[in-house]
Amino acid sequence: MPDADFRYLLLAALAIALVTAAVTDIRRRQIDNWLNASIALAAPLFWWASGLSLWPDVAIQIGMMLVVFFGLALVFARGGMGGGDVKLLAALALWLPPILMFSVIFLTSLVGGAMSMVAGARNLSLDAGERVKRALAMLATGLWVTGSGYIAWTMTGGAPLALGGIVPGAVLGAAMILALVLTGAGTVIISRNQKSRLPIPYGVAISAGGLFVLLTQFIPSAQAAFSASAIG
């Protein structure tokens, strides 16, 4: 029988686990197996509290987990992310409906990309005379971070900027194309001029994406549920 209060308690525990994953990844560049296993093993409790049926609800969650795990295992094999990152996303897939899980993955890519750009811009191996390249790399980083933040803002319910009535469409379109060209050129410079391999703590990006989704999708319904129970 569904238990709303227990469901939200589990979601709070999941949020704490995501924060813990981010902290450990920053400190040790590692997400502990026990933490990922705890998230995965707690998922059946969340299924019960949410009133999910074995078929098709639970089957969909398990299928989503397998898709995420094996899909990202290919990225791991190419050195694109750590094994702990793959396990964390796979464990998270057991909790979230597919549409929300895809949102987490997309937000993770935005935050992770911004982190990579900032770290890469700080790790540039350029001569003192290559000021134009350095400036372009810094500009691209700023544009990437700003664009990622704007996309994340609109994805999580923020109102998009209404520039259509202020800036002519042709000017706005040209500015967007120029920004994309500059960002692409700067990204190439950053990727080709690194002093050393960058150890990016992608657990932070995963945790940020997961927390964004939890805050925007579950907190409002939790408040409504607790308000209704208080009135009752």
**N/C terminus separation:** 20 Å
Helix content: over 70%
- What gross morphology would you assign? globular
Structure class: mainly alpha
Low-confidence stretches: none
Number of domains: 2
Mean pLDDT: 87
Secondary-structure element series: HHHHHHHHH
In percent terms, what proportion of residues is strand?
under 5%
Write a structural description.
The chain has 232 residues and is an all-alpha fold. The protein folds into two domains: 1-112 and 200-232, no CATH class; 124-195, no CATH class. Helix content is 78%, strand content 0%. It has helices spanning 4-28, 33-50, 54-77, 83-93, 98-122, 131-155, 169-192, 202-217, 219-231.
Fold blueprint:
Layout: H1 4-28, H2 33-50, H3 54-77, H4 83-93, H5 98-122, H6 131-155, H7 169-192, H8 202-217, H9 219-231
Give a brief description:
This protein has helices at residues 4-28, 33-50, 54-77, 83-93, 98-122, 131-155, 169-192, 202-217, 219-231. With 232 residues, it is mostly helical.
Supply the key terms:
single chain; 232 residues; mainly alpha; 9 helices; 78% helix
